[in-house]
Amino acid sequence: MTFLRATPRIAAALALAIGLVAAGAFARAEWRRADAARLLRAAPEAVIADADLMAVARAIAKPAYDANCAACHRDGAGDSTRGVPAFASGGWLYGSGDVYDIERTIAHGVRSGDPKGRNLADMPAFAREKPYAREKIDPLSPDDIDDAAEFVVSLSSGDADAAAAARGKALFEGRGGCSDCHGGDGRGDQAIGGPNLTGPRWLWGDGARETLRDSIARGHAGVCPAWDKRLDPAVIRGLALYVLDLSKGRGRAATNGKSP
Ligand code: HEC
Ligand code: HEC
Questions:
Q1: How many domains is the chain partitioned into structurally?
Q2: What are all long-range contacts of 129-132, with beta carbons under 8 Å and residues at least 24 apart?
Q3: Range of 36's domain?
Q4: Atom of ligand 1 nearest to the CA of 102
Q5: pTM (2 decimals)?
Q6: What is the C-alpha end-to-end distance of the chain, expressed in Å?
Q7: 86 close to ligand 1 (CB < 6 Angstrom)
Q8: What CATH code is carried by the domain that includes residue 198?
Q9: Tens-digit pLDDT profile for residues 122-176
């Protein structure tokens, strides 16, 4: 009978506990909404300069990054077996590391099917009869491809066969049209996502002759999904700031081959 007498008290205690938990959750949700609004209202430079707001950005972004990005981007080090770039200050594929540039890539993706996504060029497959679907580009012979790869080796490690690299340089600036997308000096074109070919970071593989030849022969067109339909604007802003953080080596365990 003591049990029956105690029941209403247990029920009341339970109800109180549930109420407290719900109020806590509500307060937390309110706190997040207020923080999200603060984050979106501030100019990104102001957020970066404000340790408190940066903490808010990281708190909003980290769970979203772990759930949606880490599978490909890992801790920011990328994955050159799958063409996933390392986030590295001074070495962006798109733009120059401005928060709005990064935000745009995250919101609309790369070759994602989103009309606002980044999608101005692919790497042609020069061993194919028709190397490029977007415009007419002539194929290269296996010897040409070896020479072009040798020129890229000369740009990066420097340890190249001089005669082959000289032939490759002529191809790079001429018939191959490589400089149109990778720049005359091979340092890339961040307006179209033409990667820097001077190393030490690589999008695909490790910069060895074999992987360079493979890139030139078979082409590439890496995809990053668009996130603006799936994630809140404040989360996307937070992610852009978080990616910028990762590019400076914060919270990173390993690097993609060499350090950023
Ligand atoms: C399925 C794998 C995949 C997922 C998931 C993914 N990405 Fe990407 N991301 C890529 C690839 C591949 C590229 C390079 C695209 C290219 O080749 O141009 C890329 C490029 C980027 C870039 C451009 C980097 C630069 O150097 O300019 C940013 C920024 C980026 N991703 C952020 C994110 C964020 C943030 C998320 C999660 C919300 C995410 N990505 C999820 C595969 C992925
Ligand atoms: C129409 C533009 C275009 C042309 C022409 C072009 N490339 Fe590329 N190239 C790209 C793009 C874009 C990528 C990155 C592909 C991706 O994001 O997955 C790339 C990637 C590469 C890579 C891999 C880089 C890395 O970091 O792993 C190499 C090597 C390369 N190109 C060499 C060449 C050479 C040599 C030529 C000329 C024979 C050439 N490219 C011509 C656009 C081009």
A1: 3
A2: 131/219, 132/219
A3: 1-41
A4: 29
A5: 0.89
A6: 71
A7: no
A8: 1.10.760.10
A9: 999 999 999 999 999 999 999 999 999 999 999 998 799 999 999 999 999 999 9
